[in-house]
Give the backbone structure.
Amino acid sequence: MTAMTTRKTVRRVILSTLLLLLGLAFLFPLYIMLINSLKNRAELYMSPVALPMGMLWGNYAEAARKMDFMRALGNSLFITIVSVVFIVIFSSMCAWMIARKNDKLSKLVYFIFVATMLIPFQTLMMPLVQMMKWSRQTLGVPVLNTYGGIIFMYIGFGMSLAVFLFHGFVKGIPLSLEEAATLDGCSRGGVFWRIVFPMLKPTIVTVIILDIIWIWNDYLLPSLVLNNKALRTIPLSTSSFFGVFTIQWNQAMAGLTMAIIPVIIFYFCAQKYIIKGVAAGAVK
Amino acid sequence: MVTHKKRERFWFFLFVFPALISFFIVVIIPFLIGIGYSFVSWDGLSMNPVKFVGMDNYARLFTDVRFGESAQHTVIFTFLSVILINVLGLVLALLVTSRLKVTTIARTMFFMPNLIGGLILGYIWKFILSDAFKAIGTQSGLTGVFFNWLLHPTAALMALVVVITWQMAGYVMIIYITGIQSVPEEVMEAATIDGAGPWRKFFTIELPLIMPSVTICTFYSLSNCFKIYDINLSLTGGGPGTSTEMFAMNIFNEIFSYNNYGYGQAKAILFFLLIAVVAITQVSLTKRREVQL
């Protein structure tokens, strides 16, 4: 009996160790990035896999300066947060209304949102750029190189999936609470904000997580909308860092490490929600 | 009664309007305009004329060698990547649903690359697969494996497969975990009692029961690989030459680098049609394999 349990324990320890080793192997590229961000050029080419001999923090200072890192971080935070807040508010309002109304018009609206999810961004990018030019020249409304312009676009692009997710969730919650509130004299708006919106919390979390990951990491849209250096997001400043300077890999690695730090912090703060949100978003 | 109806309509539009208007301006209108652009010849400069050419742009697509090659790269890349992503993702999911204590940490590690944007991942791997690999090769003498992958057409395409697999395996793992956890414990136990080994149990019971997850994961990985741009741009930039240029990059270059606005847009419309056809076919194919308990 004891022999069997010991054998089981040994097996467990071995399997656990193997799993952890596999996990570490998975993160090996990030280790390479980290160690090489602290080397000088000669050392980096001499021994790209070995731990650094010294700690050259100067690489970080230099990369931060070239990338204008703090500004890019601020831009990324601002654009992501504002876009996500609006996506959540607008899409939940719309999804609730069309799910509850469920007449022909609502069904059409829902169908349009869902059917267009297959359109890739590449199909829309050129007409969008043309519309941006037109809106400035003809309407006098600047879209290119404005925070408002890119945020508006993220709101539009974020609608489909968010409406789809909220719609599915609303269908699953019973009507009785809402009816009771209406009988007590609550307006439609009151019913939504006081009763429904708080109940949507699980889906709100899912939408927030999925949209943060998407908007934070998006490169193509900002590269078309934000040409002004002062408005660059982190992906844009990273790519310009690689484009303009002949690659000094040690500084480049420092830059990449900095670009990843906010994501890592976010991951450790919201890990539980991230895993849940991704699972919920995919299964629906 | 009339005022009630009016009030209802007011609320309806108040709630639906913000979502709908932003969506229309950003998605529907550009899509429709885009269809129109695909029938013209234009270089994107407002002082130059926009010439209607009918179906010429679409006809030209069939003789465009570079576009054909980018299609080839995309298909090979997508085929290999989808298989690798799903096999690895499923294996990881099976590993982390065992009753070990370290599974939570392991999940965190496997999922990590997904939070980092494709552009940044591409740059990290660019260093590893080019300079670091070369240095390791010269020092260890294993130049058969460790050489600058990004200078060799086939190896560079494989490099893209490696990076996307690394990024997405952790994502589909999460979806497979949900599927595996929904397989009833009793069914698996019954099979064990009946004497089924672990392989048999997996292939005849578990796999058919998690087919819905397979549908979702193949759909997700397929459409993502098909549309790949960021990693393509930062890892290989389409090179060496144009040997790793995919659909998305080819379209971008046609429009914004060579200023063929109409022709590039025709490619973009075809790209949309391809994605729609492939995605719908795939979903209906894998759906047929799903079983109900």
